[in-house]
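Repro:
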Amino acid sequence: MVNELWSPPGANLSRAGFLRGSGLLLAAAAGGGLLGACAEPGSGQGQAAAGGDGEGTDFTFLSYLTLDTLSMSPEMLGLAGGYFADHGLNTEVQVVRGSPQALQTLLSGVAPLTRVGAIDLMTARTEQDQPLVNVGTIVRRPSIRIIYSQDRPLAAPEDFVGKTIGVPSEGGTSEKTLMLMLQNSGIDPEQVTRQVVAQTPASFEMVRRGQLDGYMGSIDIALMVESTQEGGAILNPADIAAVKADTQIYVTTEEAIEQHGDDLRSYLAAIREAVTSIVEDSDRSRTIETLRGEYSFATLDDDEVAPRALDEGVALWTDDGNADELLVTDTDLWVEAVAELEEAGFISGAEDPESWVDNSLLEQ
């Protein structure tokens, strides 16, 4: 059972100048209930950022995270660096509350593309038989980190037994990743208590007080804790056990591919160019300067954290240096990831998972 847990006041990261000069896109109402697949909720409620000069084709991207985390740096640079505009897209980012709402809004036809965890698509395809398609893998490795105190290390599988770990949402990608990590390392996940906490640096205070033994957060938040909190430490779940299903993908629908194929192709090409620009910016200084011209939030504004977070991002996007196949989904690994979820009991009845992947929109 996952329990709700209080998080300290002031938990949200500071943010100013949220894409200066941009327009506001109101969140469209999506009919029906939320999908059962659950991931970390974003804090935005219909906030949005616009890119381009308004002369291109209007294109809406659904984001389950607000643009105040370097986890979204490909999208932010696509806007701030003009990559979407160069591909003829007047792009707007519509922020929704979490992956379930992102997928529900996508299915309603309000927008043609979103980015979520692979686990979300796999769950929706098997549990709701939704016509969702993976059209590109942006994050190829686990992008979540476990934040803990050096006084109570979490460095080996057995260190987790009997402990309490904070997760951003019940049943979300992070919790499932934690459970798969434990299961793959021979630990019964039920030996570890999970409690819902805010995914912010401020939640480290609960670790300090002993209310938690650790909690899961994004890379830039984890780096901020390590940099600013005495005794703060970080664990990459992959150092305990690999979780094949813990990737992030761009998702559309079969109908959207038919109706918006050219726009989807342009969007993905712009993302690929933005990522390539970050990869080629060896000290990340040019990237940081461009992003700071349009955004201001805690991890981006920190001269130590920002380049380290982007370094980690490059490793995630390129599978630690292989930039030749940016965004291309390896269908063999995809099938193995689906099998991993089935064996863990998270999904069942997966049929022809190769058909859930379409790399054709990445072709030049």
